[in-house]
């Protein structure tokens, strides 16, 4: 599977699809998100990556107002929705939708698929008649590769890949300008992950919505994203274009993430140098002073433990590291020297698309055999 090439979306004069300004989200003493600022242009796909517990999913929930931030602001298409009441927020709900990690947990098991997909139309679509709503639901299902008859089934009658397609169809019913995709493939079988990623890429290219793609899967990031933001323990440590970040990652944490990603070529995989991080894992309950990564960083110096690094421009992107110069050069924990050229950067590959699609088709066929469609 090759990297997606998308046509540019005309955005001149249009406000950003999403603006986060110094976003903070604390749960009592837990500092889940601490000062995240991020901008996504219309039609742009920005990946938010990091380990479990980095706070990336919390950012996504703040964007769609499932959580009310402790401080900072969230702007959707130029409107600050951070502290709007439910009534005042309602007109802006159409602008943003979310696809959750677990499709089984995000679909109401008591509702038919058609009711699930049509729920945004009922809540946000105004006075639509039943026939018109059913027509749009059928179109939405076909758009994600499902037959209209699926509308008469319950979520438990579908495979995992089919359920996630239903979730995507529901999210796109309101025609949002921004889609938050929170680990949309991590709960799926490996055999169907690539087909769901292909679906998201095709829909984004055809419709042109902006996307905040939250994941820890670097293969998916390389395939889908235009820009990448890397989070560690509630803070952004590096931002840049996909090409720049994969070719010359600047922050030691980003370099360690790329080094941990598997390479399809077994010869190259064996030749790679393992990056050993420190075992002093900090907690969001009591983050360490200075750079939050210094307790694990193999190249940390004394300054790292006392002074918080600012997120600043360096070599085409932004990075929060004292050891990176303004031109983007600095230590590379993968080779023990300076930042290496693109030839030394691990190449992350996805699964065989055709094989994954065939496997998902077989799964769907088995499901249909067990749960035949109702007659008209």
Automatic annotation (TrEMBL):
Residue numbers spanned by region Disordered: 350-376
Top-level taxonomic group: Bacteria
Key words, A-Z: ATP-binding, Nucleotide-binding, Transport
Pfam families, alphabetized: ABC_tran (PF00005), oligo_HPY (PF08352)
Any one GO biological process: transmembrane transport
UniProt-listed InterPro entries: AAA+_ATPase, ABC_transp_ATP-bind, ABC_transporter-like_ATP-bd, ABC_transporter-like_CS, Oligopep_ABC_C, P-loop_NTPase
CDD domains on file: ABC_NikE_OppD_transporters (cd03257)
NCBIfam families: oligo_HPY
Cross-referenced PANTHER family: D,D-DIPEPTIDE TRANSPORT ATP-BINDING PROTEIN DDPF-RELATED (PTHR43776:SF7), TRANSPORT ATP-BINDING PROTEIN (PTHR43776)
Family in the record: Belongs to the ABC transporter superfamily.
Name of the protein in its database record: Peptide/nickel transport system ATP-binding protein
